[in-house]
Amino acid sequence: MMSRMTSPTRRVIALAPMPPEKSAYALARYSRSPDSIEDSLRWVHSHSSEKFWEQFYFDYGHASIADLGHVIICFEGVSELAAIHIEDEALWDGQAKSQQAYTTLHAPIRDYLARTTPKPDDMKPQAYDRTMNARTFDITRYLLPLAATTNVGQVVSIRTLEKQICRLLSLPVAELRAIGEDLKRACATPPLNLWSDLNGKSAAPNEPLAPTLARHARPSEYPIKTYPDLQQAAAERLRLGEVKASEPVELIEPHAPLDELAATLLYRVTIYPYRQILAVVREWTEKEKEDLIEIALRRRSPHDELLQEFRCGYGFIFDVLMDLGGWRDLHRHRRCQQVRQEFTTIHGYETPSLLTDAGAAAEYRAVMDEVKEQVEGLALSHPDIATYLTPFGFRSRCLFKMDYAEAEYIARLRSGVKGHFSYRTIAWLMQRAVLARYPALGSWISATPPDIEDSLTR
Question: Which of 187, 307, 347, 451 has its CA 20 to 30 A from that of 200?
């Protein structure tokens, strides 16, 4: 007689929020035992999650466990410069607050737009005003400095959070290190639990989100010392002199991985176009390239991940030179590797054509020229402070490495008529570059030319 096997009853269960270290512990145990989720939760409730984290995450290096617990963190009153570094994680989900505070040139731009784009009869006044204000800010934000304050909200795993804390603590800017310390304290103390109060519920004891992580997070000597080493190596070995002119978007031709890695390491710590650096690196012997890579590795401990510049081998490498404000929008793309050079005024600034049309270009250029002089003078003695004064209109250089799917996505999405004209142009140029290099692939990318506009859509 055959025995009849009984199949378990299928269930799909949503769990109420828990402290992230405990939820990750529960899910880790759940995936490694035959127990139900209820039994796993009861087990975790009666056992020390701290001991578990000490043993399996920090001692044994089971890092994937920390992907199972997520936290909501809000940063208020941080600079735009800090917001850029906060968001600089590959596995990051969040939103930065739109900055509407900088109003220089607002009135003439707004008046010009109202004259040239009157409200249609079928458009509600509130929608029209909102669109005109957004388009006005598209221009006035070019004067917004990196010192302007903003808010950032994020939802990240505690694995990403640990990397974020360690990275911020390892950066050379005082504000960023202070934010790293603030993050540690936020993880080690009870979180804001306003939602339960608003719903009239008596909340369970308000436990810290990630106290074990907070205790272990610390700065890494690897990036702290390696980037200055690479900067010195670049000064000694490149000797490039003048920065050659480059297009806003350059799709780099395929080249050997060793050349790519060496050129990327040098690109990160200089102000030169990637193509100019690559031409020099290709003339080096293999030993010279390996010596540079050794500099980038010699301070690495067993616990350090490789520097971001080692994430090479992507089929599409774009060297992009664009205004800082427009780059902030492209920076949000996570399915690509971005290697950004330090912010500087040396590449000049963009002057939107609408400023000329509105008769405000001369005033704008006067402000930008004066700021450029002040920033470059201050950079000689206080480079960190000078960076904060850099307005969004100045150009910044960044390497974008990606596969074809991401190139198609960015070009299609960011070239749409609802977007800012700055990144619309860059997205369109990316599509044109792919089309020129790989016609069969580029022809499948549906990008919108920047001269196709809808003034009432923003």
Answer: 187
